[in-house]
Amino acid sequence: MPVWLFCILAITVCCLAGIAIRLLAYGEIDPLHVLLSLFFSLNFLACYWEICLYFRRDYVERRVDFWRERGKAQRRSPAMLFLQQRVTTSNAFSTSFWADIWASYSLYDGSYADRRTFGFTCDIANGFITPLPSLVLYATFTIPFLPPAVAGALGAMLFWQWVYVTSGYWASFFVSGRHRRLGLMEAVLHVHAANSLWVLLPLVGLYVSLRLILDGDYSVLGLG
Q1: How do the domains of the chain map onto residue ranges?
Q2: Cα 73 to chain centroid, rounded
Q3: CA-to-CA distance for 16 and 115, rounded, in angstroms?
Q4: How crowded is residue 179: how many other Cβ atoms within 10 Å of its Cβ?
């Protein structure tokens, strides 16, 4: 199947797992829980890609020219060309295969082919640091097992760092002048749309976390 479909299916399965467990346990679906389950699922996939970026950083730097020439030859977006590649049983978990997403994306933001940049470093940090606390929150938002104040404190720290770091990356993208090399639609599709999810959805998570602390229960997520 193509990469884009594989990614949609992976995110959907991960997201629906929490929704289904909650539905079976409590017989209801909560909109905020659905939104945060979706965000955690997106971030789990992104974390795997970021881990691939770290372990295949030399490979990413070498592959930039390949994607540049392929994009020119086919007169198409390198990122779109990557998303249309086929995922097979042999490459589904290949770090080199998924590292190519960064090589193709480097044509829009060179940070990911330069390990000295903030963009490279903050994504590597996200890949290694956030999966475990994300999994804990994903689980306790589905079937509460942590005291609300503890879940809220963990959530407030985690969601705020996503808002702060993503905003910092966004600022660095403009300050470094990388936006000048892109057309409006390229910037919207490949930079702004994706990064806005790591600001807007964490703001929802921050609201939920603060409510957990202040309310002392899980009522914000539809649980008494």
Answers
A1: 3-51+112-221
A2: 30
A3: 35
A4: 16
Name the residue type at position 160.
Answer: W
d(CA 224, CA 219): 5
Render pLDDT for 125-183 as a digit per residue (tens, 0 to 9): 999 999 999 999 999 999 999 999 999 999 999 999 999 998 887 777 776 666 566 66
Alpha-carbon distance of 218 to 212, in angstroms, equals 6
d(CA 80, CA 77) in angstroms, rounded, equals 5
The 3-state DSSP class for residue 2 equals strand
The residue type at 163: V
pLDDT of residue 179: 56
**Tokens 């409590």 found at:** 26
What's the rounded Cα separation, in Å, for the pair 67 and 65? 5
Residue 7: alpha-carbon gap to chain centroid:
11
- Cα end-to-end distance, the chain, whole Å: 42
Render pLDDT for 38-61 as a digit per residue (tens, 0 to 9): 999 999 999 999 999 999 888 888
How far is it, in rounded angstroms, from Cα 160 to Cα 53?
24
CB contact at 8 A, 224 and 218: yes
CB contact at 8 A, 130 and 47: yes
Q: What is the mean pLDDT of residues 118-125?
A: 84
Instruction: Determine contact, residues 131/47, Cβ cutoff 8 Å.
Output: yes
pTM of model > 0.90: no
